[in-house]
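Notes, Module 5: Reading structure tokens.

Key idea: the token line is not a picture. It is a compressed description, and you learn to read it the same way you learned to read a sequence, by spotting repeated patterns. We will look at two proteins. The first is printed below with its tokens.
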Amino acid sequence: MTWINDHWSEIFTLARSHVWLAGVPLILGLLIALPLGWAARRWSRVYPVLISVSGLLYTIPSLALFVLMPIIIPGTRVLDPINVVIAMTVYTVALLVRTVADGLGSVPDSTLQAAQAMGYRGFRRFFGVELPLAVPVIAAGLRVAAVSNVSIVSVASLIGVPQLGNLLTDGYDRFITAEIVAGIVACVVLALIFDGVILLGQRLLTPWQRAQGGRA
């Protein structure tokens, strides 16, 4: 506890960097996965291709992806945090494309037909009916992606990008158990915060579920 009390400022600074490296890719990945998931749902022949390709992206080892980023994106260096953001966005897209497609597929056909009969077509139907009803499924996938991002970002400490993973590597190198424990606890707390924010967003975007719960 003494080490933690003496290093609150450092832990907070690393946590703030960790939030940026894990949180920004969540938003970017969702924005990219939405049209891809819609396309996979819209065209049946595209579905297996998009799902397979996006799934394969998640099999790329994180450390290798971080190191290869300067080759993929000329002008950047290994230590550029932007490389971690892009790599984590790739992982987020890999997790969310199937989730978005399945979420849109969970909307009952009867609901879509009713919306069409009421004049909802194209983007209006997507944003007004399909996407809101798919929110619970998409939020479930986003929660998985959030926890995964918080965990994987820690690996970036091995290439020198500062975040909470630094507490793990530095604590291991210097045999400081309290530092390692602080890193683990901070990552868990951060994952719980991400999860809570997503749950709150889901609750705000699906008021009908609260109404159904109240009547139950």
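Here is the second protein, with the sequence above and the tokens below, as before.
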Amino acid sequence: MGRVWKYGDDINTDVIIPARYLFTTDPAELAAHCMEDLDPSFAGKVRPGDVIVAGRNFGCGSSREHAPVAIRAAGVACVIAVSFARIFYRNAINVGLPILECPEAVAALQDGDEVEVDVAAGTIRRVATGETFQAAPFPPFMQEILRCGGLVEYARRKLAAAAAAPEGADPQRSP
């Protein structure tokens, strides 16, 4: 369960993590400046499990993995938006940041609401009212990437499983 941090449309990667902090790839340093140019209080007040809710085209702008890394490192459990910029969408999955598209949830949820999100099922529940919203869940292979914490760890586990598998075993099976 987490609190909603609600923002509008076209939240770009420059406000998610300002370019002046791109000298580092340290997730903790990026988290300390997450959303700084849009909401200076965010990094100091966000708690593990909180959820960002936004409008259309979340993550537009510069193509940088730093943006989803900063959000994830800040403790955000999920980003729910009407839509995501294509490169942000791919970067989020690659770094293990769960994201869901659900216009109905975005329209209904308010800043400060508490929500429970089941990313695997694609369900979003507003705790105070019990109202539930349904996003399209990810296919199983993408859920596995998210469970692994991103594409790098997913690949490590696949390679380790293949190396440990007895001869003749299917190395494409889940680790």
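Summary for the second protein:
- The mean pLDDT is 94.
- The helical segments are 13-16, 27-32, 42-45, 66-73, 86-95, 103-108, 140-148, 151-164.
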